[in-house]
Amino acid sequence: MDVVKVIAVENLPLFKKGDNIGRLICEAAEKQGTPLQEGDVLVVTHVAVSKAEGNIVNLNEVTPSNRALEIAAKVGKDPAIVEVVLREAKEIVRLGPNSIITETKQGIVAANSGIDQSNVEGNRNVALLPVDPDLSARNIRQYVKESTGCNIAVIVSDTHGRPLRMGEINIAIGIAGILPLRDRRGEKDLYGYVLRVKQTCIADELASAAELVIGQANEGIPAAIIRGYKYQTSEVSARKLTRQKERDMFR
Amino acid sequence: MDVVKVIAVENLPLFKKGDNIGRLICEAAEKQGTPLQEGDVLVVTHVAVSKAEGNIVNLNEVTPSNRALEIAAKVGKDPAIVEVVLREAKEIVRLGPNSIITETKQGIVAANSGIDQSNVEGNRNVALLPVDPDLSARNIRQYVKESTGCNIAVIVSDTHGRPLRMGEINIAIGIAGILPLRDRRGEKDLYGYVLRVKQTCIADELASAAELVIGQANEGIPAAIIRGYKYQTSEVSARKLTRQKERDMFR
DSSP for A40-85? Predict the structure, then answer.
């Protein structure tokens, strides 16, 4: 019988700049009796990663440009936040009430360029997205390989508000060691007919599954281990998960 | 330590019209040594539900309207399929190459009105969405309650292609016994600051987590049990998960 386990990594310290996330997670997982194993998928929130990488900005030190002031007035947001959103953006996708949706420098379409105000120490500090979330994931993966000998997959996750659907879900913004899209075109269905359109974004589904334990404890759990899920390894970037503008009927 | 398990319900028969899905799943779960328990979340694919409810249409028996012929020519699809898509639709949201996105009678925004050509016997048969997916979920929930005494939550799932992101993920189109959106506004974060925007669509995350086992076995697994996840019960409809047009910057 096929069982997939989603295991919370508990009792991690609050991450700070310079921390080795891979090491801290390995230690915490070991301590709670669930050391990382070959084939595990480790999901880590981007805020945890950005804190360890020092990718934090103090809004008091930000001088808004004229463009930021203009947009801030239009959407009703703090001009300093808008300035940071614009600095992190490659392109504005939509403007709405209290909302700026951009494509970030990392190639992710996100509200407020993925900037997070929660779970960051100091109420004028915000966490940016990691500079290169795939690299962040690869670094953790490599540490785990060197330290335990195990090949795992790593996903850096972010919460993601959606067109069409209410509420946020977690998605993958950085990946290492896993093929994020499972292409099932050509496989056969229950009755032997060939599937023609099915391509499943397992990286996003894994990020969402991880949120089932990450979201439960007052924001105190930044990582989860998913065990028992079979996947293909690959070097594909999470950038491939953003729908190209030309192929997006909603952009 | 918080662990959530996603358990495949294996060795289910191919569902046919008139089957009692609740009973068949209870029996299969019992047989494999994982009987349903109090607090479980049971996720069932909509194709399985529609087959048991007889919600199948044979395309050879469909006469396309003029409008269906027109749209079929425009998007390059089988006119009979387009006719069924239009019959199931309340409104067309987008037309694109080989793609019709509608809001269905059930209030779900879906490609091709959620009609499925795979995993349905006979290559001219298609499965529609269940007429009332919440009711389908409630019926299963009630059967389980009566038969085992356990209160569970039930989610009817569908694969869902997305604006902005590549690949499909599973979402909840029918729910029973679970509050689908976890509203975290007012809760405190790691450092005691109050969360202002967080609302997590746990119903969709649970549907995606279930797909980790449902999607693995050549389409042979139409149901999964999620065990160990704490949620609030409610009578809220899955219709609440569709973003209202007025609140959707992408419609």
Answer: -EEEEEHHHHHHHTT-EEEGGG----HHHHHHHHHHT--HHHHHHH
Q: Which residues of A touch B187 (CB under 8 A)?
A: 218
Question: Would you call A6 and B10 a contact, using CB atoms and an 8 Å cutoff?
Answer: no
pTM of the predicted model, to two decimals?
Answer: 0.96
CA–CA dist A215, A237 (Å, integer): 25
The answer to whether A200 contacts B243, with C-beta atoms less than 8 Å apart, is no
CB < 8 Å & 24+ apart, contacts of A119-125: A119/A47, A119/A219, A119/B189, A119/B190, A119/B191, A120/A47, A120/A51, A120/A56, A120/B191, A121/A14, A121/B191, A122/A58, A122/B191, A123/B193, A124/A58, A124/A59, A124/A60, A125/A56, A125/A57, A125/A58, A125/A59
pLDDT in tens, B145-174: 999 999 999 999 999 999 999 999 999 999
Residues of chain A with C-beta less than 8 angstroms from the C-beta of B13: none
* Domains defined for chain A, CATH in brackets: 5-54+130-243 (3.30.1330.100), 57-125 (3.90.1660.10)
If you average pLDDT over residues A46-73, what whole number do you get?
96
Q: Do A243 and B190 touch (CB under 8 A)?
A: no
Q: What is the pLDDT of residues B65-120, one digit of tens each?
A: 999 999 999 999 999 999 999 999 999 999 988 889 999 999 999 999 999 888 88
Nearest to B149 by CA among B38, B6, B29, B2: B38
Q: Which residues of B touch A198 (CB under 8 A)?
A: 118, 159, 168
Residues in chain B: 251
Closest CA to A28 of A58, A44, A8, A53: A8
CB contact under 8 A, B181 and A171: no
Q: Which residue has the tokens 């670094």?
A: A139
**Distance from C-alpha of B12 to C-alpha of B225, rounded to nearest angstrom:** 13
Distances in Å between the alpha carbon of A101 and those of A35, A50, A112, A144? 39, 20, 6, 35
B103: left (phi over 0), alpha (psi -120 to 50) or beta: beta
Nearest to A164 among B109, B168, B189 (CB): B109
Report phi then psi at A190, rounded to 5.
-50, -35
Alpha-carbon span A29 to A9, nearest angstrom:
6
| C-beta of residue B124 within 8 angstroms of C-beta of residue B118 | no
Q: Report the C-alpha gap between A123 and A39 in whole angstroms.
A: 39
How many Å separate Cα B121 from the centre of its chain?
20
Closest listed residue to residue B206, CA positions, set B142, B140, B154: B154
Q: Which of A246, A230, A250 is nearest to A182 (CA)?
A: A230
Among residues A56, A138, A251, the alpha carbon closest in space to that of B165 is found at: A251
Chain B residue with CA closest to A171: the answer is B165
Task: Read off the DSSP letter of residue B203.
Answer: H
Decide the pairing of beta strands A56-58 and A125-127: antiparallel
